Amino acid sequence: MKSCNPEKSFQYTYAIKVSAEEYEAAKKKTLGYYESNEVKYAVLHNFPVAIYCIKKKLNIPSLPKVPIPEAHREFLSSLKKTLRAFKGFREKDRFVCSTFCSYILLSSVPRIALYFCERDFSYDYTTPSELSMLPGMKLLFSGNWLNFNKDAETFAKENPEFKKYL
Question: Which of 40, 49, 100, 104 suits a disulfide with 95, CB 3.0-4.6 Å?
Answer without folding.
Answer: 100
